[in-house]
Each structure stands twice: as structure tokens, then as C-alpha cells.
Amino acid sequence: MTTPGDDARDDDTAGTLDVESLASARRDEAMDTDQRRLLVFSGDRDAGIDAAFDVVRGADVPEDEVTFVTTREGFRFDRVEPRQASKLLGTTRTIVVLDAHEDFSANTLGRVAGAVDGGGLLVLLTPPPDEWVTRRDSFDERLAVPPFTTDDVTGRFRGRLVSTLRDHPGIALVNLDTGTVERDGAYRQGISFDTALPSVPSDRRFPRRAYEDCLTADQADALAELEALAEPETAVVVEADRGRGKSSAAGLAAGSLAAEGRDVVVTAPGRRNAAEVFVRAERLLRELGDFQSGSADEFDLSSSRGGRIRYVAPTEAGAAATTADAVVVDEAAALPVRLLTSFLDAPSVAFCTTVRGYEGAGRGFAVRFRDRLDESSHTVTDVRLDDPIRYAAGDPVESWTFRALLLDARPPVAQLIADATPASVEYQTLTPDDLLADEHLLREAFGLLVLAHYRTEPDDLARLLDAPNLTLRALTYEGRVVSVALLAREGNLDAETRRHMYDGGRIRGNMLPDVFTSQLRDEDAGIPVGYRVMRIATHHAVRSSGLGSRLLSAIRDEFEDDADYLGVGFGATPELLSFWRENDYGTVHLSTTRNDTSGEYSALMLLPLSTAGHALHDRHAEWFVQRIGDVLGDALSDLDPDVARAALASVDIDDDPSLSDYEWRVVVGASYGPGLYTTAPGAFRRLALAHLISPERASLTDREERLLVRKVLQTQRWSSVADELGFHSTAQCMRALGDAYEPLVDEYGGDVAHDERERYL
């Protein structure tokens, strides 16, 4: 379809209010261009809701194609609570009305905008702009983490949002208080929206019907590449912006494989993220007459030829991958690298990822995981979908949401910062006002933060601009951002708040004091002031060049006299634990449950700066050492031994094994003589902990240290330990444990131990 060839225009002339005519005009324009339009009604809330009803009438849209996202009740239309806007994911509506007067958030806006179909209208009801910027609501209350109050929360995010509404094309602005149309939002862009039609490849493997179900040539091309999943040792990476049909293509591929009798595992951050995959797969199987009914689970489909498509949670999909024929990972950018790597155990795997959207950052997926994918045994095929499906190219609502929510934020081009070194960069404080004054700076800084985490949401932009407890530090090279750290101020909590935490109450934004107080029973942990490194990221073009450590060093120097400690919490991996250890952070806690999304245990680490900070660090490090031996034998019995080794090596205190004379004789007897480890395992555990906390004191191999963790600390069965660590037999494994204790006896043993040793030498 081609729009009329006139230039883009936007009539800013104020006009008399006629909502129905305005809605009709914008609806006609949206339908003509297969794009969407945005109507903003500012002013009294009741008047805004009345205007929204007028829009529905003027646009002449059936009631079942309309959704109101509002806290108000009593509508004859479909209604969704703002905090449950995620229910709209994977659905389309002709008109969506977002009531921003209560419970508004950036996340809600992003989710709602994505649900409007081509030819449809997004209607935004807001307070008067100046009032909206200064108003404080439930979202601001969530930003006001103790000891801050809502008076400390700013309105910068909403101020920026209002600014984009006032000057972006395709947006109508209506002032309900004055009864005027300030901008009518007329917008016809003189470009062609013709899209190439899909075709059926002559050499296809998948059913003809699957290609006939494709809506664009892009989607058909992606499906053709996904045929590679029928062969082992293959991987396909499908990248797209939102609304390009990548999930549908994945569903058609899954359905095609199931029609061949294949077992396909589908995984995603949550079931709802994978809904479109299953919808398209089931539709295809039904069209092929190959759908096997009987399962009541819409996320578990079967074909009459024995094929199956089933959803498996990310933390369990790695194990399922070993027996499946293929794995389809939707919204792969929202999953951590450790889990993505586990999916490579499947014979074939498809990674479908959103490049720009709140589900995750495709660039982050590429930067953090792509090297591991390329090093695997899989032959990798890349495909990208550019043609929109739900609406035509050039859609002003899409470009506005990208701009307003920074969904397209990205770090500087690699060539501009490739020569950055720790000596050539400048350390800077980037205040919210600095970021608002320089859109390029904001985009570069936020773009790096997106890469720092496997899931960054639009709400994070609002937090960056408005939350009183957050502050941003950066390294810049010739004015370009090369490394950033987002810091959260914690602590300085009054006695009542600390008592509330101790009794089990949750306190927002104070993660470290919360864990120390509620879980580790330290009611005084909320007194010191600390800064937690929420996220830290360095541009991928200059990683491993010392910039991250340079940034942390500058932060330490800046806050040395203004805070009691610096801290961090993260999903524990050996690499991350070693990085923080090299920057003088010490382990004080390992969580005893895995993160539902990442599947990792979290580590908490502290770098004390003051006397109070040292007291906090030292007592928690000591408590950690006291309990970790027992915890590894219980809740952490499945912890990766290399994570355990790195966590213990990062404990910043000395540990004396304190064995009795009798225990030393048992240990020496089991290492140098004929004794048995099982005689006094507690002695062996304390000695193992002492070594792993200070591994430099005695020379053990990596395998010997893993043996200490798996057998002595985690009390795994001899047979499973021998199997995992590559010993030929349990007997060889037992002898290796005795050998591993010989240098520990030499290093830690006193006169009694050494005299006992001489008997066997």
C-alpha cells in the first residue's frame, strides 16, 4: 500500500474541540497508511474518560476491539489494571486507552503501545502537563526508597515524556480544561509502505502451508533458515525489533518439526513470552490435520505423528535439551549467558531475540553470548526480520515509544572509543540534569546500562532520572561514554525501619541491609551508609582492558570519606567473583536459593571504607565462614564447585582450622597413612575451608580443590564425585583426596601433625 505523496505535516493551530471528528480523521489516516496514531487528552480525569468514549464512537470501532488500561472500574469495554498490562503482550487491539492518572509507569506505557494494531489508535489520558510532572503517585512511592520520601523524587522522566509528546509527529494533543485541540496530529509521510510478499521456496523441507501462513517475505526467509533445525549441530539466531513476527516464525518452525515427529522444547523468560510460538504452532498443526488433541495444557502440544512441542522453564530447559530434538529460545536476550550456554547441549537450537524492546536487548545478547555460540560445535545461521507485521514501516507511535522509552538506546560506535585506555579516560559524575541536557549522552549511558543486565526495562529509565537513591558514574573518552556504573545509596535507616526489617518486613531499595537484617539477623546492618553497585558495564570494544577496574577505583576514591562501604550483589559465576575480588570486594554471603530467571545463586560482597564499614564487613565475613561449611552440605549441595572456590577465595579474613591434636592425627593418618576420611569429616571440612579461603598458602590443583568442595564440603557420594571429576574408580578418588590433604598438613599442621607425619615418611 502507498500513502499519498504529500509531505509530512502537523497542524499546530489550536482548534475547537470535536473529539469524534478528530478521532475519525486520525483513524481514517491510520487505516490508509496501516500505521497507528496517538491521541493525548490532558486535563480532568473524568473528562478524559468521556473523551475516550467519544474516540471509540468517532473511530467506529467494535467494543470487543477496545481495551481500557485503568484502575477505574465499571466499563463496558475490556479493562486491564495498569500493573497487569503484561496481559496485553501477544495480543492486538484496535484502540487501547491508557489512563495515566493513577498507577502509570514506563513499563505500562511500553506494553500498552505494543498491543495497538496497524490502523489503530493509542489514547493517553493525562493530568495537565505541568501538574503531571510535579504529581507524585504510586510509581513515585516505589522510587522513594528509605530513608528518602516522595518529596525527594523528581519528575524528570515525565517532563521528558511530555516534551516528546509535544513535538513528535503523529500525535494529537487535546487540552480538555480549555476545550481546544493544540495539535491535531495529522501525519502522512510521503513514502511507500509496499512490502514484498512471501513466497514458497521450491526446495523447502517444511510444509507449504507453513510458508503460506507467513505474512511477510522477511518471515518466510526466517522460516527457510529455521529449516536447519531439522539437522543436528545447527543453531539459528533470529533478531528483530518488536512486531516483526519472529515468535510467529519460531512457532511455524516448531509446528513443522512436530509434524515430522520431532520433540521440540520451547523456553522463554516466562510462559507468556512463549504464547505466540504455541498459538502459531497449534494453528499450523490443525491446518495440516496433524494436531493431537487431549492435553489440557496449551503449552504442551502433540502431533499425530508422535511429535511434541512443550514449554520448559529456562532453569530446567538445559537438562531437557539433552533429550530433545530441538530447542527454541524466545526472548533470548532476557536470559543470562549461563542459561543460554546450557541450551547448546541440544542437537539444534534457535535463539530468537528482540533487538529493541523492553523484553531485553538484542545487542546485549550478541555481545555477551555470541562468542560462546561461535565457539560451540554448532553451525550458526543468522537472520534478521525488518518488515513490521502489525503495522506499516514509518509508524509514528513506534518511533515515539523508541524515543520516549529509549528502546533504541545504544553505546557509541566502536570505532570512536577503540583507543580508550585507563590512562586516557576521564571520570565523571553524570547527573540526571546532565543526561537530560544531552540526548546523545543519555542514549550512550543508558545503552551501556542495557548491556550490563540481561533484562533492562523502561522503568529503569525512570529510575535513572528520578530515583533519589541512584547516582551514575562514568568513564568517557573524547566525550564518549566507555564505562558506566549505576550506584544505589543504602543504609542510614532509623531504628523503627531496622526493627521492621528484622521482623520480616521488606524495605525497598536497600538490598544489602535487607538481606543482612532479615536473613542474617543483624539488626544493626542498616545503620552504616553504603553504595551498592547495581550495574557496571564497559563498552564491548574495550573490554578486558582494565576500564571496569579503573572505574571502580575512582568510585572508591570518591566515596572513601562519604560512605561506610561499597557493595555489590550478582548472580555468582567464577569470572565475576574473581573480578570483584581483584577490586578488593570480599564475599560475605551466598544465597541459598537460585534466581528463578538466571538459575544462579547470588553472591554479596563488600568493600569497607570506614570503621563502621569494616565492622559490618568483618562480622559478616566471619559469620559466612562459620556457616558456609554446613550450608554447602545442605542448601548449596548443588553449587558449582568453581563458584564455591571463587566465593571462598574472595573472603577477606584469615581462617584458622583449629583442629585438636586428635583431629590432626586422624587427618595425617588419612593423608600420609592408612586412616580414613570418614572417621572425623568435620576436621577435614574445617581444613578444606581454611585452604579454599587462602588457596595461595598451599599448592593444590584445580581438580584437587574441586574434590575438596564436592566430597568434603558438599558431601557428595564417592561414585558421583569420581564420575564428575574424571577418576577411573572410587578407590582412585579416595586416594586423591588423601594426597590433596598432604600439602595442607604440611602448611597448617603444628608439632603434633608433623610428628605424626614422620611416622609414615
UniProtKB/TrEMBL annotation:
TmcA/NAT10 N-terminal domain ranges (all copies): 28-174
Keyword entries, A-Z: Acyltransferase, ATP-binding, Cytoplasm, Nucleotide-binding, RNA-binding, Transferase, tRNA processing, tRNA-binding
EC annotation from Swiss-Prot or TrEMBL: 2.3.1.193
N-acetyltransferase domain boundaries: 447-559
InterPro entries in the cross-refs: Acyl_CoA_acyltransferase (IPR016181), GNAT_dom (IPR000182), P-loop_NTPase (IPR027417), TcmA/NAT10_helicase (IPR007807), TmcA/NAT10/Kre33 (IPR032672), TmcA/NAT10_N (IPR013562), TmcA_C_sf (IPR038321), tRNA_acetyltr_TmcA (IPR024914)
Catalysis: reaction(s): a cytidine in mRNA + acetyl-CoA + ATP + H2O = an N(4)-acetylcytidine in mRNA + ADP + phosphate + CoA + H(+); a cytidine in RNA + acetyl-CoA + ATP + H2O = an N(4)-acetylcytidine in RNA + ADP + phosphate + CoA + H(+); a cytidine in tRNA + acetyl-CoA + ATP + H2O = an N(4)-acetylcytidine in tRNA + ADP + phosphate + CoA + H(+); cytidine(34) in elongator tRNA(Met) + acetyl-CoA + ATP + H2O = N(4)-acetylcytidine(34) in elongator tRNA(Met) + ADP + phosphate + CoA + H(+)
Gene3D superfamilies: 3.40.50.11040, 3.40.630.30, P-loop containing nucleotide triphosphate hydrolases, tRNA(Met) cytidine acetyltransferase, tail domain
Residues at which ATP binds: 219, 390
Subcellular location, record wording: Cytoplasm
Superkingdom assignment: Archaea
Pfam families: GNAT_acetyltr_2, NAT10_TcmA_helicase, TmcA_N
Described purpose of this protein according to its UniProt entry: Catalyzes the formation of N(4)-acetylcytidine (ac(4)C) at the wobble position of tRNA(Met), by using acetyl-CoA as an acetyl donor and ATP (or GTP).
Family (UniProt): Belongs to the TmcA family.
Protein name: tRNA(Met) cytidine acetyltransferase TmcA
Lineage, highest ranks first: Archaea, Methanobacteriati, Methanobacteriota, Stenosarchaea group, Halobacteria
Gene that specifies this protein: tmcA
